[in-house]
Design brief:
Order of helices and strands of chain A: EEEEEEEEEEEE
Structural class of chain B: mainly beta
Low-confidence stretches of chain A: none
Mean pLDDT of chain B: 92
Largest sheet of chain A: 6 strands, mixed
Radius of gyration of chain B: 13 Å
Number of helices of chain B: 0
Number of strands of chain A: 12
Largest sheet of chain B: 7 strands, mixed
Low-confidence stretches of chain B: none
Oligomer: heterodimer
């Protein structure tokens, strides 16, 4: 069985400040990890994914995430956010099943 | 073309109506998915088609009926829905459905059942 926990339901931040969105997972097998973003009234779009290799993964729009096996975490970071980053962010894991399990989502709210 | 196109974007229907949601992709993907998403919640998987065959049905009520006429099209037929079925319905596709693949999502159909 696999599961994903996104600890924060909402993260408010000021424009140009750094941000970290937290994600922890559990799985009995090796996993693939993903971050998706959903802008208002849109579908989900892949930001980045970890399959294997380097634990620091760079994605689109200046986001990056670090896979930490010992802490079973895959936190998403951006050094300087923009108003346009305001969206819902979903962490997802694929383990034994090829269907991804999504976290509950974190709403990133960027204030001017 | 890297898009998944869903129509209509919005749909309002009564509980006795029959309607269909449509999804189309021309990326040559052989796995297609229907998800249901309530506001402020993650997407919940409903159905998966792999090579035009239904491979996963996540215990969805029979008032939702999927159809995959060919490798580019995916439909969701709706009949006798309940108000609690109101949600955003998302279609997605991936190359083959294998583990590391990313999902490409459409923008969804916002469904309201009155």
């Amino acid at each position: 069985a696999q599961s994903v926990t996104q600890l924060d339901s909402q993260v408010p931040v000021f424009e140009e400040a750094p941000v970290e969105l937290r994600c922890n997972y559990s799985s009995s097998v090796s996993v693939y990890l993903f971050w998706y973003v959903q802008y208002p009234n849109q579908g989900l779009q892949l930001l980045l994914k970890y399959l294997s290799g380097s634990t620091l993964v760079k994605g689109i729009n200046g986001f990056e995430a670090e896979f930490n096996k010992s802490q079973t975490s895959f936190h998403l970071r951006k050094p300087s956010v923009h108003i346009s980053d305001t969206a819902e962010y979903f962490c997802a894991v694929k383990g034994g099943s090829y269907i991804p399990t999504f976290g509950r989502g974190t709403s990133l709210i960027v204030h001017p | 073309d890297t898009e998944v196109t869903q129509t209509p974007k919005h749909l309002v229907m009564g509980m006795t109506n029959k309607k269909s949601l449509k999804c189309e992709q021309h990326m040559g993907h052989r796995a297609m998915y229907w998800y249901k998403q309530k506001a402020k919640k993650p997407p919940e998987l409903m159905f998966v088609y792999s090579y035009e065959k239904l491979s996963i049905n996540e215990s969805v009520p029979s008032r939702f009926s999927p159809e995959c006429p060919n490798s580019s099209l995916l439909n969701l037929h709706l009949h006798a829905l309940q108000p609690e079925d109101s949600a955003l319905y998302l279609c997605a596709s991936s190359q083959t459905g294998a583990l590391p693949e990313k999902l490409f999502f459409g923008s969804g159909t916002q469904l309201s059942v009155l």
